[in-house]
Design brief:
The structure is a single chain. The protein is α/β, with parallel strands linked by helices. The chain has 2 domains: 241 residues, Type I PLP-dependent aspartate aminotransferase-like (Major domain) (Aspartate Aminotransferase, domain 2); 100 residues, Aspartate Aminotransferase, domain 1 (Alpha-Beta Complex). It has 9 helices and 13 strands. Strand 3, helix 4 and strand 4 form a beta-alpha-beta unit. Bound molecules: pyridoxal-5'-phosphate. Pyridoxal-5'-phosphate binds next to helix 3. Catalyzes the reversible conversion of 3-phosphohydroxypyruvate to phosphoserine and of 3-hydroxy-2-oxo-4-phosphonooxybutanoate to phosphohydroxythreonine. Its cofactor is pyridoxal 5'-phosphate. Its EC number is 2.6.1.52.
Length: 358
């Protein structure tokens, strides 16, 4: 039986990448040493990290005046790093509260002593649509506006970035990084853990405009953008294996035709499931149509017990990790870049059968 993994992250990776890692694990580039044993100060690793950076630049058309940095600590680490590095002027941040992770980012900044103003929230709508704020947002008032481009738990996404006046825009792309096209130039900073679309957990990608990187006192070195720029992301020991594996996924993505092509496929995959759900008399997705995510699709029968049975039926068919997040319930299918169309078809077939039986 073919197993398809619909987990929200860590998530499915391309089969060819797993195979390549397996083949190369005992000896990287004929060195007789495993990538897990290689010094980050070696020429071999220099080549790996520099190639990964260049591939990020090529794939996202990153302009020259942006840095591409590799951190540890996940998206959560960046919830702290971003205010510490960027909110140095007003110590005041604007936020669009589109769900759990946006809210967590706000809580972390508040906890660190920054003022966080939630300009709009759709909490009262159970985050089933995206918040928008129509007034201009001024850089005279705020250091930046924080948005979450894709809301992993709730299943919404800003396919077009919201208006934000002249304020610096910060985007949490954790769950749709390179799954759909965004213009890097629209943002001052974008970030996300790679463990959904781009690699194994352990690497956090940050792309930041040069003028936002400045010396800041009294912040931890491992979250200091200025130091990481100076040290080519190797201020301390980086996650060597994870950067290597991420590099392989980036190469795979290039081989697939890049982000434009993968976005086309992601739309096809998402439509297949949404069309089924919209026609279904048993299952439904409750997200406002224009705000629906391509990568995370929550759905439910509306009956907890029946949802449980559906999860059981999918697991028996080799369709794994479809249980919805505890805050939303129901089921959730994460259709990241490495999920093939056949996997989504298998899911739709299984749900269709389940519906016939119930
Ligand atoms: C949108 C979003 N932001 C942030 C995070 C937190 O990331 P991490 O677990 O890498 O700290 C997640 C995790 O799923 C996420 O989905």
């Amino acid at each position: 039986m073919t197993i398809y993994n619909f987990a929200a992250g860590p998530a499915t990776l391309p089969d060819s990448v797993i195979k390549q890692i397996q083949d190369e694990l005992p000896s990287i580039n004929g060195s007789g040493m495993s990538i897990m044993e290689i010094s980050h100060r070696s020429a071999l690793f220099d080549n790996i990290i520099n190639t990964a950076e260049q591939d990020v630049r090529d794939l996202m058309h990153v302009p020259e005046n942006y840095h591409v940095l590799f951190f540890q600590g996940g998206g959560t680490g960046q919830f702290a790093a971003i205010p510490m590095n960027l909110a140095t002027n007003h110590k005041r941040i604007a936020l669009l509260d589109s769900g759990h992770w946006a809210s967590r980012a706000g809580d972390e900044a508040t906890n660190l002593g920054y003022q966080v103003d939630v300009l709009a929230s759709t909490k009262d709508q159970h985050y089933q649509e995206l918040p928008h704020y129509d007034e201009p947002i001024s850089s005279n008032q705020y250091d930046y506006l924080h948005i979450t481009t894709n809301n992993t738990i709730e299943g919404t996404a800003y396919h077009k970035i919201p208006q934000h006046g002249d304020v610096t825009l910060v985007g949490d792309l954790s769950s749709n990084f390179m799954a759909e096209e965004y213009n890097v130039k629209d943002f001052g900073l974008i970030f996300g853990g790679v463990q959904k679309n781009l690699g194994p957990a352990g690497v956090t990608l940050v792309i930041v405009r040069d003028d936002l990187v400045k010396p800041v006192k009294h912040i931890p070195s491992i979250l200091n953008y200025n130091l990481f720029v100076k040290k080519n992301s190797m201020f301390n020991t980086p996650p060597v294996f994870n950067i290597y594996a991420t590099g392989l996924v980036l190469k795979w993505l290039k081989d697939q035709g890049g982000i434009a092509e993968i976005e086309k496929r992601n739309k096809q995959k998402a439509s297949l499931l949404y069309d089924f759900l919209d026609d279904s008399k048993l299952f439904a997705n409750h997200i406002k149509e224009s705000d629906r995510s391509l990568t995370n699709i929550p759905f439910t029968t509306g009956d907890e017990d029946l949802d449980k049975q559906a999860i059981q039926a999918t697991a028996e068919a080799g369709l794994m990790n479809l249980k919805g997040h505890r805050s939303v319930g129901g089921l959730r299918a994460s259709l990241y870049n490495a999920m093939p169309l056949e996997g989504v078809q298998a899911l739709v077939d299984c749900l269709h059968n389940f519906e016939k039986q119930h």
